[in-house]
Design goal:
This protein is α/β, with parallel strands linked by helices. 32% of the residues lie in helices and 23% in strands.
């Protein structure tokens, strides 16, 4: 039997950068009409079926019929936060009174992956999993990945929602799933050699760690079968261009990224131009606010992303504060009409530190670190409290090839580069190679040593 390499699609559809050109290029007026109708239905659904939202709406004097515009939704629907749901789940496990679907509809249990604090439990209906998976496909397709590709998951398959949703995405695309569950790093390398997948799914830092371990094993990952790497879970190739270069050089592959929030959706697949992510406006409604004034921010201004998910019908999220700082644009040269976040997430409201009047963001420091020769991929940004001010210093591992006698000069050069780029000087300290923790999933970059009263939650 002859099988067409395009799986029955026309060649033009196979080569198109769009998974669904119609939805990805809808005019803004039409997108806003869709949003309003969906938000009105969602508010009604939550009021009728979720004790949590009914209590919130009643306290705010809000009835479902009050939402007559997008501005009504932004201003009248109370903001929610992860801490709300964590508290309710602790009082009434596993999910609290936030549910809006009966338990008979719960098809999958997952949890958030924060490296500090209590994880948020997330129930998904079968419908939710299909819609959630679709978000990954938009990004896969834009990068060049197709149903003929074979996906290797360097993932433990625990309760972490992120790469379960990637699995749903591969099933939706029609690609082949190859599980690396239960294997250590060396085992992943051997499995890739033996099974010859074409796509690597992992966190970005773990992709670099795998490449480093492979070199020690005498394996050249750049000569492997991997043609694409795709990442989520922490800042990656879009937010950190130097990381993109390192991953692509290490694997001889094209690297992509998706911005996801486990309890919300794989909400923003990467732009094919590689300079940002597009909000999947089929699955979420999103706007930005100034976290200090609580006023909506305009185009091109940095603000906190606030989202409402159309995907999580079992545990709805309305006007949900993400604490992610983004710069929103309404147009893009790639042709997509969905809102774009330049550079993905620029920082977190709780990752920003003001040092001598200058706002310092994690991603900005990481980009400087990634561009320095002799600096490895392992480092930490340490927050402390000194003289009534927040301070940040950088702790990094030099490359093994850098002699110990050169560490001081390397630290000084890195400090100069940070000062030149960010217009603020941070203390930089070199530590012994392989002395910082290694992580197989989400890497912990921020170490908060401030007194308890000055800390905020550093993970979703």
């Amino acid at each position: 039997m002859h099988v067409e390499p395009t799986g029955g699609l026309s060649q033009s559809a196979w080569d198109s950068p769009f998974w669904n050109e119609y939805t990805e290029t809808l005019p803004r007026e039409r997108l806003n009409q869709l949003h309003l109708g969906r938000l009105q239905n969602l508010v009604r659904h939550c009021y009728q079926n979720s004790p949590f939202y009914r209590e919130r709406f009643d306290a705010a004097g809000l009835k479902p019929g009050d939402i007559q515009s997008l501005e009504d939704f932004k201003r009248k629907v109370p903001l929610t936060d992860k801490s709300d749901f964590i508290q309710l789940q602790a009082e009434s496990p596993p999910y609290g009174p936030t549910q809006a679907l009966p338990g008979a509809f719960w098809a999958h249990h997952a949890e958030t992956s924060g490296t500090t604090g209590v994880p948020l439990a997330i129930p998904y209906s079968m419908y939710d999993t299909v819609r959630y998976g679709e978000s990954w496909v938009y990004g896969f397709w834009a990068l060049g990945i197709r149903p003929s590709d074979r996906f290797y998951f360097a993932f433990s398959w625990g309760n972490f929602a992120g790469f379960w949703s990637a699995y749903w995405g591969v099933r939706r695309l029609g690609g082949q799933v190859i599980s690396g569950g239960g294997l250590n790093t060396e085992g992943h390398i051997r499995a890739i050699e033996r099974l010859k997948p074409t796509v690597l799914i992992s966190t970005p830092t773990f992709a670099l760690r795998m490449a480093a371990v492979a070199r020690e094993m005498g394996v050249d990952t750049a000569a492997s079968s991997i043609r694409y790497t795709y990442h989520a879970g922490e800042p990656g190739p879009t937010a950190l261009p130097q990381m993109r270069r390192r991953i692509e050089d290490a694997w001889g592959a094209k690297a992509g990224e998706l911005l996801g929030i486990a309890e919300v959706d794989a909400m923003a697949p990467g732009c094919p131009l590689g300079d940002g992510v597009h909000v999947n406006e089929m699955n979420v409604f999103s706007w930005s606010l100034n976290p200090e004034t609580m006023e909506e921010t305009g185009e091109g201004e940095i603000g906190e992303n606030v989202v409402t998910s159309y995907v999580n019908n079992a545990q709805p999220l309305l006007n949900y504060r993400t604490h992610d700082l983004v710069r929103r644009r309404s147009t893009c040269a790639c042709g997509r009409s969905w809102d774009k976040f330049e550079g993905s997430v620029l920082g977190r409201t709780d990752f920003m530190v003001t040092v001598r009047g200058t706002n310092v963001y994690q991603s900005a420091v990481e980009n400087v670190l990634g561009g320095m020769d002799g600096v490895s991929d392992f480092y930490e940004l340490v927050l402390e409290r000194k003289d009534e001010n927040d301070v940040m210093f950088v702790r990094f591992e030099p490359e093994k090839s850098v002699p110990g006698g050169e560490w001081a000069a390397l630290s000084e050069s890195l400090g100069d580069r940070i000062a030149e780029t960010l217009r603020v000087r941070l203390e930089v300290r070199a530590v012994e190679p392989e002395s910082l923790p290694r992580y197989d999933l989400k890497t912990k970059r921020i170490i908060d040593n401030r007194p308890e009263e000055f800390r905020r939650v550093l993970d979703r």
